[in-house]
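Thread: quick sanity check before group meeting

JM: Hey all, I'm pulling together slides for Thursday and realized we never actually wrote out the predicted structure for the chain we discussed last week. Dropping the sequence here so it's in one place. If anyone has concerns about the input, flag it before I start.
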Amino acid sequence: MLFVHLVYQLLYMSFKRYLTSTFVLCTAVFICAPVGDSLIKRKTIEKYLEAYDVYMDVSENQNIYLYNIENPLPTISELEAAETSGGRDNEAKRKMIYTGLINMSNNDNKFLRNFYKTLKITGYVDTVNRLFVDNINLIMLSPKIERINLYTIGGKKNSKPTARAKMYISWYLRNCFDEVTDTIESTGFSGSYTSEYSSVAEYFDNYPQLRNQMLQEAFTNALTNLHSNKTFDKRIKYEADYTINDSLLILSVQNSFVTDKSDAGLACVAVKTKENHGSGFAITKDGYIVTSYHTIEDAVTDKKDEVTLITATGEETKGKIIRYNRFRNLALLKTEKQFEKVFKIPSEKAFKNLQDVLTIGTPKSIELGQSISAGIISAERKINNNYFIQLNMSINSGNSGGPLFDAAGSLYGMIVAKLIGKNTEGVSFAVPAFLLEHHLKIKLK
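JM (edit): ok, ran it. Output follows.
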């Protein structure tokens, strides 16, 4: 499957929703995302955030706690101290909260949309660069609400009772590869809500929008309090270095370079894993091959260090995964096979706009290996730490990792992506070849 690197984060938002134990409420509804100066605004030195999903591990008889506070103006310390009393003695109030959550969860996923809206209001959603997403500086937040406290405050001697809520949330931090990098816990209190009735439960049953707003405030304050966590503060710092940690690898190059388009196929291979396939090309005679990371990603995830390579003659051989740069979408493989021709990696930019180019790859099916596509270089794109060659040529799933070259065999790039969607044709991208050594920390001599 061709990895659409430029819309990678958007694709991941559409799948891999993990259910929680107990009774799971996937969403909840709140009237609006709160706006105010109390919300923490994104700094330029911080990464962007994305609302991945919201889960609730809350049932009618578990994880909802109720506390009665006599002091009409309790401090946060007094509210927290009340938790030692147990707080599960009023079934009607617990049912009120639980029923409210059930109703909110069935209302068009508004909880998630308002969570996203809060991040957008605070500047943590990148609303400018939605195509060239800086994946290394993106954190997807997947909160799970673990517990809800409801405090009934005062209400004696003919005074009206007030209510406050507290949420306990586990925040799962995911990178653009859908990997959970950290789990951080935070809590948040709502403001006080004064009842028009003698019973808080009756009040919120008659005015569910206020109950929902109270829970939204608690959620948003838990999000705000997340920023005080040292681990989160470390993770959210903007990263400008995409360098991999591998040591510099020196590769020996012999004079067997592709010098004509008719020889290019001798340096090209199809790359096959258990669940995927793509393309690749040799850069040394003794079997070092460059491909795209997403082509071999499932092998890395499954902790396999080998993939299958198919040469121009149909011969199958094993290729070992030597190293990869996930955020540049590059990988280096090694096979024991000797190549008659290889592509020469340039040390500097040699391409220009409107230049005719070719690629050899394995579009759609492994049976279509050594397929050739022709097109032109239409532009260079340098946006948000990304540098791509934009192409006007036919690219399909399986072309990823293939070489971009001209009629004289000069290598210009490696195919990584195409745009897909309604009314979108012939817009594809390649990583410039002169950056391959730097991105993979290799040196050819």
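AS: nice. The chain has two domains: 5-235, 249-444. Confidence is low (pLDDT under 50) at residues 1-37.
JM: adding both to the slides.
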